[in-house]
Amino acid sequence: MPTTATAAAAFADVTASESTLRRFLHGLPGVDAVGLEARAASLGTRSIKTTAKAYAIDLAISMIDLTTLEGADTPGKVRALAAKAVHPDPTDRTTPTTAAVCVYPDMVATAKAALAGSDVKVASVATAFPAGRAALPVKLADTADAIAAGADEIDMVIDRGAFLAGRYLEVHDQIAAIRAECGDRARLKVIFETGELSTYDNIRRASWLGMMAGADFIKTSTGKVAVNATPANTLLMLEAVRDFRAQTGVQIGVKPAGGIRNTKEAIKFLVLVNETAGADWLDNHWFRFGASSLLNDLLMQRQKMATGHYSGPDYVTVD
Question: Helices 263-276 and 293-307, interaxial angle, to 10°?
Answer without folding.
Answer: 100
